[in-house]
Amino acid sequence: MSSSLDLRAGDKILISRTDRLGDLILALPFAETIKARYPECRVDIMASLYASPIVENNSNIDGIVRVLNKQLGGDRLYKRDLLQKTRQANYRVVVVLYPGRHISQLFYKANIPIRIGTAGRFHSVFFNHHLFHSRKSNRKHECEYNFDFLKFFREGPTINRPTVYPREKEFQNARRILEKSGVEGKFVVLHPGSGGSAERWPIERFIELHYALEQEGVQVVISGSEPEGTVIDEISKRMGITVRKIAGETDLRTLAATLSLAEVVVANSTGPLHLAVAVGTKVLGLYPGKAVMSPARWGPLGKHDRVLVPTSSECKCPPNQCDCMMTITVDRAAKQVTDLLKLED
Hints:
The protein has about 350 residues and is of the alpha/beta class. Helices cover about 35% and strands about 15% of the residues.
């Protein structure tokens, strides 16, 4: 292992992960590990505006820098303001877990003395400390790839699981929304969306799973965005199945509280799946057979989580047309959910 950086009490460390919700959640163990090893330093996270709320109320993170990714590409005034803000923060170290070109260049222009990022990209020139690894092989979990950056830091405790901390007011909002939807007592959440980040189990299958679990006496509620809720209404009406849903009624932190109150969450490989894990709820993840989207790389990190994958060994379907996901049957999913319901936390 190379010698660790010479950091002093009061130094400020910025950890940048500005892409999707799930990616940010899987970066939390790295950020909290840095804070655990350098309690005398300030540790901030830079994240996308959409995903950043999940870092709130985390006593292990000192600050959040919120970024509008779309503006980074062409809004000169926004880039200038963000650059000025980053300079004034006087960070000594930045760790760029997701090295987009615009954000990497910003750290260079901000004159942050220690800029850590991966080698092998055109914009790796903006870093002065390079990590030589490639994620393209998908040989280990995304969280482990993040931990590769620990080679630059002192040894010490390691935080292995992500944690998100809902506030009491968010629990109150969640309970109000659930009560409005008719949920009383224990329940399961189904989250059909994927945000386009992975091939998904069709919404029709989630609706069939809703029906199957309700027939077994399990209360079920479907979550998602407002547009997803409209699609769920249309499909469920066509199928003649009545569903209970809260799609479009929760912001990100209220969703976290809702998932925390659930017994089990069933979702595709997507941010809310990892959010459920981070609030301590058991999950069933539905994953395609493509290596780049596999549970080996993107699987849940909880204690009792389950995953289902297609029966075919390797998916060669075109993007967004994955027929292999149809081989995951409702019966298989329902059995996994009922097994998880029997497990003690």
